[in-house]
UniProtKB/TrEMBL annotation:
Gene: alr
Residues annotated with N6-(pyridoxal phosphate)lysine modification: 38
InterPro entries, alphabetized: Ala_racemase, Ala_racemase/Decarboxylase_C, Ala_racemase_C, Ala_racemase_N, Ala_racemase_pyridoxalP-BS, PLP-binding_barrel
Name of the protein in question: Alanine racemase
Cofactor(s), names only, from the UniProt record: pyridoxal 5'-phosphate
E.C. number(s) listed in UniProt: 5.1.1.1
Entries under CDD domains matching the protein: PLPDE_III_AR
The organism of origin for this protein: Humibacter ginsenosidimutans
Amino acid sequence: MTDAAPDREAVVDLGAVRRNVETLRATIGTEHTIAVVKANAYGHGAVPVARAALAGGADRLGVADVSEALELREADIAAPLLAWLHGARPDFTRTVEANVELGISTLDQLDAAIDAAKSTGRVAVVHLKLDTGLSRNGLSADAWPTATRAARAAETAGLVRVAGVFSHLSGTSPDADTAQADALDRGLADAARAGLDPEFVHLAASGAALTLPGTRYNTVRLGISIYGLSPFSDREPAEFGLTPAMTLRSRVVATRSIPDGQGVSYGHTYRASGDTNLALVPVGYADGLPRQASGAAEVWIGGARRPVAGRVAMDQIVVDVDGTPASVGDEVVLFGDPATGVPSAEDWARAAGTIGYDIVTRLGSRVRRTYVGE
């Protein structure tokens, strides 16, 4: 980092995103790939990541909220785009006008899509979602026959096109995921009996797409893996040929020495076991570092991994740098590509008792995103 660099910076390697998508497509081999860029592309930046994923060979994009989809359209991203999580009383008028495809989880949502088609004079493109066992959103097995018949009637009337049928796995076990695939197969048979012929069938996200070929169908939704993180807490990204795209870095803003027995940070949960040197780093839980990782996480400083001393505070952490050279202005890497020796997002996740998804998506507004590898 230079003297002019921000104290809190997430460097996102768009080349890594592109290469990850290329690797995943070659490994998984489905006809279609939906790159999931919801939640600001898992904290990486939706617009630049969407472009990188498309450059890597993804042919479709997926988001949760309609607002996320419209942001991409406003950035002149014209690729096929699916939004699947909606409010209590959705109005899909702008969505249909923007040629955004809609995930449909209730009969009311289907009615709203039909209403939008009537008001805009455009066909609403929908993907019907069947709840196959996650028990979250999606049409129930009981409601599914009614929904497929209603969708077919709207399709015949020229109001709707059922482009896809999909569901979401629980990831409980391979057997449980296979049972959900069986439930989706039954739902597809019901849809066919209603006269529907969806072009896209998708069930697997990153984890199942990489390990359970029977859940791939002709389309997969790839989220965490395109960012170079593993969908499994016990497997590293490198096992799948992936490279983490984000490096979170800061710099030392102060150093000090403390005597044996001196406590550090709130509650003095850390005490020096001898005369110790400390470095102050201006990144805290307001910036996304999990407070639960207090005293357990490490950072890269002075060419070595060094422990966080004491509790993560709102704006800062203290690092034990005893025996490691550290001066004001030195770069500190909180997480990045472990192949370079630095801690990974998964390392922070393990320290906090959470998952890598949580670490990268929680970064706060004070953290500047810088893009490289475009």
